[in-house]
Design goal:
Layout (H helix, E strand, L loop, with lengths): L1 E5 L4 H12 L3 E6 L15 E3 L5 H10 L2 E6 L6 H6 L1 H22 L3 E5 L12 E2 L10 H19 L3 E7 L1 E3 L14 H10 L5 E3 L11 E2 L1 E3 H16 L7 E4 L5 E2 H12 L6 E3 L8 E4 L2 H7 L7 H15 L6
Parallel strand pairs: 1-2, 1-4, 2-3, 4-5, 5-7, 6-15, 7-12, 8-11, 9-14, 10-15
Antiparallel strand pairs: 10-13
Cofactor: NAD(+)
Catalytic activity: UDP-alpha-D-glucose = UDP-alpha-D-galactose
Organism: Nocardioides taihuensis
């Protein structure tokens, strides 16, 4: 069977592609390379350079490769920047998803795994997020991810569409030194690049009501995340039933201080992070419960914090000047 991976040249998407190959599922990739890297796509995987806004191209790709289902990761993912670029965010994340679903309906592709986000929850008033926690996104990015879930839900009411959406927080690490996080807004790339420039990484607030005073969040290894997407595709392909939404969470979380300590230990670069004032709106702790995903998708944290840091550091060193900094 063949599955289309939208955004398959990106950091997460490329890991999903590799996981599909390891599961003996044939992937095909469509990506406009706005943030993806073509070399992230293995040579033996068909690659279509283009935007999901081009409905004819998407439809032709589905037909040419006899696609059975779609893992939809493409989108504009920068929550902070989305506040300054709401129209762009909605176009890339909502209009493109509508176009994709229209093409799928036309061709008869009836299975989709949607890469959603924990940004749909906004700043919840609980320290352990479940799928029943009310959604209240606080950025255009979070809003578009929630609307994307609604689109799948409503399309499934009107046509034969089997789907699930995966929500998650911070994705880190690398499954291969050739694949690295290309985002200039994520914690690991920011800290690694500051260390390379001889600058001191920063912690925003150390007086939170947490064990070490710094914010606690869910950090997931990208390879674990990729496996969950592939397992969701396999269940849908086999005719199994899935919940409309799953959280991929650790259930425990890691503090910013713990991350800094692990980075110092792994890199061998001695530094003491500079502590700055709290950022407005940063909750002390947000961690997701992943029990439902564990039950239905075999979700589990297979990598330790050290694994996450060490693999990301190796990929950063291998990337050299290609690293976003």
């Amino acid at each position: 069977m063949t599955w289309l991976v939208t955004g398959g040249a990106g950091y997460i998407g490329s890991h999903v592609v590799h996981a599909l190959l390891e599961a003996d599922i044939d992937p095909v990739v469509i990506d406009d390379l706005s943030s993806g890297v073509e070399s992230f796509v293995p040579e033996r995987v068909p690659f279509v350079r283009g935007t999901l806004l081009d409905g004819a191209l998407v439809e032709q790709t589905l037909r040419d490769h006899d696609v059975e289902g779609v893992i939809h990761l493409a989108g504009f993912k920068y929550a902070g920047v989305s506040v300054q670029r709401p129209l762009h965010t909605y176009t890339q994340n909502i209009t493109a998803t509508v176009t994709l679903l229209q093409a799928m309906e036309t061709v008869g592709v009836d299975k989709i795994v949607f890469s959603s986000s924990a940004a749909t929850y906004g700043t919840p008033d609980v320290d352990m997020v479940t799928e029943d926690t009310p959604t209240s996104p606080e950025s255009p990015y979070g809003e578009t991810k929630l609307v994307g879930e609604w689109l799948l839900r409503d399309a499934a009411r009107a046509q034969d569409l089997r789907h699930t959406s995966l929500r998650y927080f911070n994705v880190v690490g690398s499954g291969s030194p050739d694949l690295f996080d290309t985002s200039p807004h994520n914690l690991f790339p920011i800290v690694f690049d500051m260390l390379y420039r001889g600058e001191t990484p920063r912690i925003n607030g150390d007086d939170y009501p947490t064990p070490d005073g710094t914010c606690v969040r869910d950090y997931l290894h990208v390879s674990d995340l990729a496996l969950a997407h592939v397992e969701a595709a396999r269940v849908l392909a086999a005719g199994g039933s899935l919940e409309p939404v799953y959280n991929l969470g650790s259930g425990e979380g890691v503090s910013v201080r713990q991350i800094m300590d692990a980075i110092r230990e792994v890199t061998g670069i001695h530094f003491e992070p500079e502590v700055r004032e709290r950022r407005a709106g940063d909750p002390a702790r947000i961690v997701a419960n992943g029990d439902k995903a564990g039950r239905d998708l075999g979700w589990q944290m297979r990598h330790t914090l050290r694994d996450m840091v060490e693999s990301a550091w190796q990929a950063r060193k291998a990337a050299g000047d290609r690293y976003p900094g």
